[in-house]
Amino acid sequence: MTATHEVEVHVKSLKTGETVKFKITDTATLQQAWDKALDELHETRNEGDKFRCESGDDLTSYLNQTLAALHDQKVCVGRHFEIKGPTGGARA
Amino acid sequence: MPDRPLPAPTDPITASSAVREHLTKALAGRRYEYDDDRTILLWLQAARPTGETDEYLVRLRFLHYPDWPPSVTFLNPSTRLYDATHWPAISGNPNNAFYPKYGDAPEGMMCNTTSFEYYFWGGHTPTSTIHWNKNCHTFAATIAELADNLRKPFYQGRQT
C-alpha cells in the first residue's frame, strides 16, 4: 500500500498576478489542483484557459494525472503552476 | 488615424487608483519605475535561443485603464523615447506579433488583446473569449504576454 501525503502547490493567475499556495494530497489530479486554485483565487475557469508550469510548459496533457505521478515523471517538480487566459492577435 | 474613434480617457484618479491597486502583484520581482501619473517604465530580460540575454525597456501607459489594457511600446533606454530600432524580434507565436511600426499607430504595436493599440489600429475584431475584460484582467496579463514572448520558443533576438 502506497502512503499518501500532502504537498504544497503554488498557483499564479497570469490574468491578475494573484498567487495562492495551499496543501493538497499528492493523490489529487492536476485538474483537482487547478480547481482548488480557482476556488482560492475566486476565479472561474473560462474557455481557452491553460494550466501550465511556471516554465511556460503547457500541462494540458497531464490534467488527469496525480501530482505524485507528475513528480515521478519529473514534470514541474517545484509545483509552481500558472493559469494563463486566452489572448489573441496576429501570428508572429 | 485609428480605425475608430478612441475612447475618452479614464478619469485620471480612477486610472491611477487602479494602477496602484494592481501594481504590486503585476510587477512582483520586476524592475520598474512608476511616475504616479499612469505611466510605468519596465525593464525586461529576454533570453535568446543561444542562451544570451538582452534587456528591453517597455513603457506602459494607462490613460484608458482599467476599461482598456495599457498602451505598450518599447523605448530606447538611453533617451527613454519610443524607438523602432529597440524592439525585440519574435517568431512563431500564433497569438502575438511585435510591430515596431504599424500603419498610423503612433508608437508601434504589440498585436495582442492585452495591449490598447490592438483594439484601435489594424481592424481587429476579437471574440469575447479573448477580449480584454476589466472584471477578470489586470495589466498583469499584459506583463505575462510580454514575458512569454521574450523567451523560448518565440524570442529571436533584437530586430534589425
Structure description:
The complex is a heterodimer of chains A (92) and B (160). Chain A has 92 residues and is α+β, with helices and mostly antiparallel strands. Chain A has helices at residues 30-41, 67-72, and strands at 6-13, 19-25, 50-53, 80-84. In chain A, strand 1 and strand 2 (19-25) form a beta hairpin. The model of chain A has no long low-confidence stretch (mean pLDDT 95). Chain A has 2 helices and 4 strands, in the order E-E-H-E-H-E. The radius of gyration of chain A is 13 Å and the shape is globular. In chain A, 20% of the residues lie in helices and 26% in strands. The longest helix of chain A has 12 residues, at 30-41. Chain A has a single domain (6-84), classed as Phosphatidylinositol 3-kinase Catalytic Subunit, Chain A, domain 1 (Ubiquitin-like (UB roll), Roll). Chain B is globular and about 45 Å long. Chain B has helices spanning 12-26, 116-120, 140-149, and strands spanning 31-34, 39-47, 53-61, 71-76, 81-82, 88-90, 98-99, 109-110, 155-158. In chain B, strands 1-2-3-4-5 form a 5-stranded antiparallel beta sheet, with no helix packed on it. In chain B, strands 6-9 form a two-stranded antiparallel sheet. A two-stranded antiparallel ribbon of chain B has the order 7-8. Chain B has one domain: Roll (Ubiquitin Conjugating Enzyme), CATH 3.10.110. By secondary structure, chain B is of the alpha+beta class. Chain B starts with 11 loop residues before the first helix and ends with a strand. Chain B has 3 helices and 9 strands. In chain B, a hairpin with a 4-residue loop joins strand 4 and strand 5 (81-82). The interface between A and B is medium-sized, with 22 and 40 residues.
